[in-house]
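Structure tokens please, single chain.
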Amino acid sequence: LTVHMRVTRIGTKNFGLAYILTDANDDSRVFAGGSSIQVCYGYRRRWSIPVPDNLRHALAAYHRETAVHDS
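Here you go.
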């Protein structure tokens, strides 16, 4: 089993991820797919917070990297 993940969007307070699960020996054999929205949350104040800069930069770099591999 191989899990492929990509960043679909980076918002102000959240970011989106998409997932595809494939056969480890044959990527064309897809078992499942899905997506999620991750919300950055400040537990101390109990509300959503802006995506921290270090996370935003890491997500953007991963998004660029996976976009190159998808081409």
